[in-house]
Amino acid sequence: MVASVFQLQCSCNNYPWGKKGRESLAATLCAKTPNTGFEIDESKEYAEMWMGDYPVLPAKGLKSGEELHKIVDDNKEQLLGKTCIEKFGGVVPFLPKILSISKALPLQIHPNKELSEQLHKKDPEKYTDPNHKPEIAIALGPFEVFAGFKNNNDIQDLFSALPPLERFLPRKDVNFDNDVLKQICYKILTASDEEIRITQAELAKLPREKYGKQAYMLDLLPRLQQQYSKEDPGNLVALLTMNFLSLSAGDAIYVPADAPHAYLSGDIVECMARSNNVLNTGFCPRADADSIELFTSALTFSPHTAEEVKLGTSKTEKSISGKTSVYAPPMSEFNMLKTSLQAGEKESIRAIGGPSVLFATSGTGKLMADGNTQEIKEGYIFFVGQGVEVSYEASNGLEVYQAYAE
Predict the structure, then answer these.
(1) How far apart are CA 348 and CA 319, in angstroms?
(2) Element (H, E) at 236
(3) Which pLDDT does position 336 carry in this prediction?
């Protein structure tokens, strides 16, 4: 029988959009856990620290070194609980991460469950599970992101005011609806390198006032071109059709399955349903892009404004002292608690009827759970089995996130 609460060790991947060396919060937090052998190489990019039981980049028990999915598999009822097993199977149904982003991630969607099942059956090496992947992203500081589609009226204003965009319209005098928007995305993504380059050059020459309230596009365009190229169709899809949000620490977004998004910069907490499926079509070499037909056919049009993308917080009944709020996306796989304590403050989280993963993003303090007291500080990560109350006492301020299912 394993302990119901135990510390985890995690690792980072090295995607080229990650931040380098110690500039990466993902890497610096990962390196805080002692006795793991993880050392930061200042010449490498560190993009994501994964903190779940997904076998691609699994967390491990710090003391045992055993992969989390094996620990969970051997102790399902104790750690997950019968309700969670019945709902989600014998796995942790969510995957929390820390991301450190220096340039745009690929323009992407995560396929819905039905499509994921089809893709996994057809190509299990590329699509490694049959699950969907709705997700949230919580800013730990300044965070820039393209997410979801703009209001159709705003998109139509651009296509009406900017002559270079006429080449992407399915027909003249079109009334913008979601079907037309899907056709426009397809035409942009399948356009030639020359068409994309010429369109961007023509757009850059137009007077700023032609763009109205969307003139911010002119500031972002050269930045995206420098990161990838003047031939990347993602530049146009993102700028013309998608919401651009500039968020601050604590702000969050929810991205449902099939919704287009591309994170642009910042450090974030990300959490998703337990999956690694993705379709990329922009902000990547064309040779690396997935099927444009598949991407556009799967697109969803909710959210359809910047406000619909945002995910707020609320009070939670899990909190005993009122120092914790909850991000509760409209999905069943998880919620995310955030506990913020000043020096000397305490908080307790009521027992949860399913598994959770908690991690400190700043500060130091004590963690009391399952009859034991342990140190918790920036970068420390713990797995908590179902039915265990958790308490914190901050020594020097403490911020803890806790993803959970029940």
Answers:
(1) 6
(2) helix 234-241
(3) 98
